[in-house]
Design brief:
With 202 residues, the chain is mainly β. The protein has strands at 6-8, 11-13, 18-22, 25-34, 47-57, 63-72, 77-79, 82-84, 87-89, 93-97, 101-102, 108-109, 115-120, 125-130, 136-141, 146-148, 151-153, 156-159, 162-167, 170-175, 184-189, 196-201. It has three domains: 6-79; 82-148, no CATH class; 151-201, no CATH class. A hairpin with a 2-residue loop joins strand 17 and strand 18 (156-159).
């Protein structure tokens, strides 16, 4: 059989593309075609190879195709949401999760304890990382406040015991919260790191 166009089941075949549409939802593929009547007119200048979207009314009550997913001929991929290698992508966040499920509305649900690493454009936390128990070990909030249980900034090591400046493997300067009477709260050591040249005890 040979034909330059036609229809098989619910698939429409044209000389440059094949697509199907049901309940205002359309998917299609092509070797590279300019799509017409798009909700975003700027995309009409791009050649599409794969696409999926919904037909909606624009402000002039005309039918337009609103693309939720597409791959352009140059390899550029766009998707409003999805999962790639354990990473969940949604409108306002990117989250690495160990377990998730799809609800009845077709949306990805992630248990809070499994939001291991993430970034979000809404809410109080913009960046975060959690341990296996679900505790937050690193975060940046909407005001730019950074919190971390440990780290290294400009040679200064930060942990639950305090703040220490290291010269190689030698602890040169330290600030420690006084956990008990007589404990060293501040110290500065010599170059060898053996003797205190300055110290303050609690």
């Amino acid at each position: 059989m040979y034909a330059t166009g036609g229809k098989i089941a619910n698939w429409t075949i044209e000389d440059d593309k094949i697509f199907t549409q049901k309940n205002n939802r359309q998917v299609g593929m092509s070797a590279g075609v300019y799509l017409e009547d798009l909700m975003d007119p700027k995309l009409s200048d791009d050649t599409m190879c794969f696409w999926a979207g919904e037909v909606k009314k624009d402000d002039k009550e005309q039918d337009k195709l609103d693309l939720n997913f597409y791959v352009k001929q140059d390899g550029y991929l766009f998707s409003k949401k999805g999962q790639i290698g354990g990473w969940t992508i949604r409108d306002n966040d990117l989250i690495y999760n160990q377990s998730s499920k799809i609800n009845e509305q077709g949306e990805v649900e992630i248990p809070k304890i499994n939001e291991k690493i993430g970034m979000r454009a809404v809410g109080d936390l913009y960046l975060w990382a959690k341990n296996n128990e679900g505790g937050t070990v690193f975060s940046v909030n909407k005001n730019g406040y950074l919190k971390s249980v440990s780290g290294n900034i400009g040679g200064w090591e930060v942990d639950s015991d305090g703040l220490t400046y290291k010269d190689g493997s030698v602890n040169r300067v330290g600030l420690r919260p006084a956990k008990q009477s007589g404990a060293m709260a501040i110290f500065v050591k010599d170059k060898a790191g053996e003797n205190n040249v300055f110290s303050v005890t609690n």
